[in-house]
Each structure stands twice: as structure tokens, then as C-alpha cells.
Amino acid sequence: MNNEKYTYLSLWIFLVFCTPLKAQEDRPSFVLDVPYVATPENIVDEMLDMAGVSAKDVLYDLGSGDGRIPIRAAITVGARGIGIDLNPERVREAIKNAKEAEVTDKVSFYEGDVFEVDFSEASVLTLYLFPEVNLKLRPRIQKMAPGTKIVSHNYDMGDWEPDLTKEIMGPDGRKHVLYLWKIPD
């Protein structure tokens, strides 16, 4: 009987103290403000086209996921691209995708919090973030250099009127809305 109590007590101690620690190890050490949702290729192309991205541009993609926007800009027009994502798994995937596309000389990907990263060198800024995240970033974005172009996928910036809005159909038949702002001179 005593042995049985000891076994139950040992099991209880293990479950209470060890299992939560193991489960905590499996959890990411960050909290995502926005879930990862890949932007369809035709939407990526339209975003780059709306911003008039060229080889002279430095494109920052906040919440860059698998890196498809900076990689596509590097492939199509030779633009330099920087992707920032909070999720280390997405950053590793983006780096792998850049290697496969042979554009590692043009693009870089970093793990970081978009609220803490300096993206002021961007001439083009791309976003696929939630409205509340866009609004939180808006004061910093509006202080960017005159002529900087910002393209947001599906989410606006509150009462900041975009210079251009476009609706485009995705390959799945769903409507996507793109917004473009240009920092005034």
C-alpha cells in the first residue's frame, strides 16, 4: 500500500512539475500579433507593380513570412529586400527560399519585432498585418522619407486616406484589397 501511495505521489509530482515545463519548452518564446498567411503570387506581383518597385529600391517587408515579396522583387526587378518576421521558423524558411531562388546577394531576412526594427531606409514598405498593427505602426511610417511608398494587403490605416486602392481576385476566387500610400514631399 505504501509503495502504491509512493507511486501515485511520484506520478502527481511529475505531472505537476515536469509536464508544464516540457509543454512550456514546446511553446514559442514569442507571441504573434498576426498569424502567418501566405500572400498569393498574383497579389505579390500587383503589390510590387502598384509601388513601381525598381532596382533602385530598398523594400522592407514587415511580417515577411516565407520571404516571397522581397524575393519576388529581387527576381523581377533586382530590388534589394529586407524581411522582418517574429517567427524564427518563417525566417529560416525565407532564407532557404532566397538560397533556392539564388538571390541571397539581394535579400536578407531577420528575426525581429516590427515595432522595434528600424525600417527607415526603405523606399518601399510592404505590409500584410492586422488593422490594429498598421495603426500602431502608422506614426513611424508617416515619419519616413518623402517619396516612400507603402503597400498594405487587405488592411488600411484608419483615416489615413490611401493614394490608390485596388481590388484584385486571388487564385482562390477571393477578393483582395491593396492600399498604396506615398509619403508626401
Low-confidence residue ranges: 4-30
Characterize the largest beta sheet: strand count, sense, and whether it forms a barrel. Answer: 7 strands, mixed
How much of the residues is beta strand, in percent? 15-25%
Overall mean pLDDT score?
A: 86
How many DSSP H or I helices? 5
Structural class of the helices, strands and pairings?
Answer: alpha/beta
Query: Rounded to an integer, what's the Rg over CA atoms?
Result: 21 Å
Number of strands: 7
| Overall helicity | 25-40%
Q: Give the second-level CATH assignment, the architecture.
A: 3-Layer(aba) Sandwich
Succession of helices and strands: HHEHEHEEHEEE
Overall geometric form: globular
Structural domains: how many: 1
Assign the CATH topology. Rossmann fold
